[in-house]
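Methods — Computational structure assignment.
A single polypeptide chain was analysed. Its primary sequence is given first, followed by the predicted tertiary structure written as structure tokens.
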Amino acid sequence: MYIRVRFPSINLLKNKQTMYAQKTIGRRAFLKNSILGSSLLVTTNIPLHAINLEKDDDLLKGVCDIHLHATPDSRERSVNEYKFMQDAIRAGYRAVMFKSNDFSCHDRAYLIRQALPDAECFGSFCMNRVHGDKVNVYAAQKAIETSGGLCRCIWMPTLDAAYQYQRENRKEQGIPVLDNNGQVLPEVIKVMEICAETDIIFATGHASPEESIILARKAHEIGVKRFVVTHANSSIWTMTDSQIKECIDNGAYIEYCYLPCLWGEGTKMPQYQRQSIEEFLSFVRIDPERSFISTDLGQAVMPHPIQGMRDCIIKLQTAGMPQKEIDLLVRHNPAWLIKVN
């Protein structure tokens, strides 16, 4: 069965617009935002940025969000990493893995842990243009060798992925993961081997659904245990049921992001079609044992990631999803993927 998806207009993605339609920020603003979170307001279904948390909130206790964005970054974000970890600890989160499309964040996770001993925070590393015009094996190796061993995921290209550039009709050549014959590139295979040897996540980034299937097959052949297909329910990366099941058959875990349930008409990200909770549920119910939910939040114009996660869990419970499956999706599976004991 195929899922009918309405993709965003290519015209709305032109002029080198990013996935989240955010402007880049200058050095002064970058440094400022490394300390202060932004406080923009927008009409959404849930409050923006301001959060009212009680310590050891049962609803959020034990949650692991392993895909969210915070400052410092080259794009405006709603909160900084240090403040987010303070909020996450207060909310009862078990662990967090930050994602930055342009910079390393595993090194900052090491420093945050020095200041917040209770912080189970980890970082990850994206293979975007800031690291070269192709997947950079040396950069991946150095990421996993960084003090603390807190890089728990290597993402294939995201905002600079060849597939995304193609969908945006950009003149430049994005960073590929496959050659012209549809074979996985040697440098991508080497990064898979690094992830297999160190037993961390290899994630597909912004690869196309078809590319993700090919990557899943190769990762299975190489022996990557923590292979993740990302954004399987999001925009131009949305997969069909059969594509998802083929990836799972090759050992993949599937990521479903809650962000698509929040963007759309009436928000500051109106160019995307909002996903109904019914559509979202149709994805997460495919195989909860091989899936997980992340918020993919942190955009300056969207709700605080903790509010997003809370809203997601409430919606799952209201829809009648068994608590055991919810726990797999937001607690057990993401915790296993980042090796939280």
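Note: The first helix runs from residue 27 to 33.
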